[in-house]
Amino acid sequence: MRFIDFEGRKPTDKDIHGWEPWTEEAWKKWLADSEEHLREVKRRHESGDIAARNAYIDSKAKHWGKLKKWLFALSNGKCWFTEGRDICSHEDVEHFRPKKLVLNLDNSEDDGYWWLAFDYKNYRASGNVPNRKKGNWFPIHEDSRRSKFDKRSEESETIVLIDPTNPQDVGLIAFNEEGNAIPNPKLIDPWDRLRAEKSIEWLKLNEHDDLPEERRKVWQKISRLLEEYYIAKAAYKPGINPAPYNTMKEKLREIKERTRADAELSVTAMWCVEFRNDRELHRLVAC
User: Fold this and answer.
1) Is 94 helix (H, G, I), strand (E, B) or coil?
2) Contact of 164 with 96, CB cutoff 8 Å
3) For the chain, which terminus, N or C, has the lower number of CB atoms within 10 Å?
4) Euclidean distance between CA atoms 133 and 131, whole angstroms
């Protein structure tokens, strides 16, 4: 999982690769439609007809679907949870906080975050594999209070599920040579480990066979490049045998390409480098 810098982003932004910016008028129209949809949802909610409320939300799926291409453009066409493109099948707009129903760790249910159904800040770009596996799972810490429409407190919730728009969260998950997502080996806090384990489970980061297989291929490719880099580095002698230097540069270039934000499964490649525990290598790949 890679950090998605979502704060303050809008479809009118002109610096998103592969995205044709909306006009301000089009964006204002989308926001106005969102407000109208929320009023309709609120009216049904206050009448006590939850089934009608939920049916109305479902009937407006095309509204948030209009932002699908923009959301995926923010991540270079990759699922925000898996970093896959075609690996996770079709593209979905995922509601991070479930819009109709919430499942807790003990399988008990709470009402969903229906007031966020048309709030674009609650959307995440997702392949349908993690989206459908996650479903309504959205537990919070037992000492945390769940946000309600009449007492909003989303910012204060201590949530379990890892959020790709939180730079602290994405580091909780690592990857190994088998292509599996694992809790970061450096985690000490049991709560952080629980969050990583449950997120791996709920997002189906290992169950969908194609994902570990493709990560394994990335790991193997980076491992080969690293071995070739180290062999060239060992043979390189300035003034005596300078020829291997070009090989070193070429292998580093290939590694850096596969760890860039636009590369598929780039975080797996980064963890392959990380497990070498070579500070100089880290510096060279990062620069």
Assistant:
1) strand
2) no
3) C
4) 6
Measure the CA–CA gap between 50 and 110, rounded to whole angstroms: 13
Residue from 114, 128, 138 nearest 210 by CA: 128
pTM for the full predicted model: 0.92
pLDDT digits (tens, 9 = 90+) for 49-90: 999 999 999 999 999 999 999 999 999 999 999 999 877 667
Tokens linked to 153 = 């407190």
User: Would you state the structure tokens that stand for residue 68, as one six-digit string?
Assistant: 């699908």
The residue count for the chain = 287
Structure tokens at 251: 């292998």
User: In sequence order, what E strands does the chain have?
Assistant: 91-95, 101-103, 109-111, 123-127, 173-175, 181-183
How many CB atoms are closer than 10 A to CB 230? 15
- What backbone torsions phi and psi does residue 91 show, to the nearest 5 degrees? -90, 140
Cα separation, 64 vs 70, in Å, equals 11
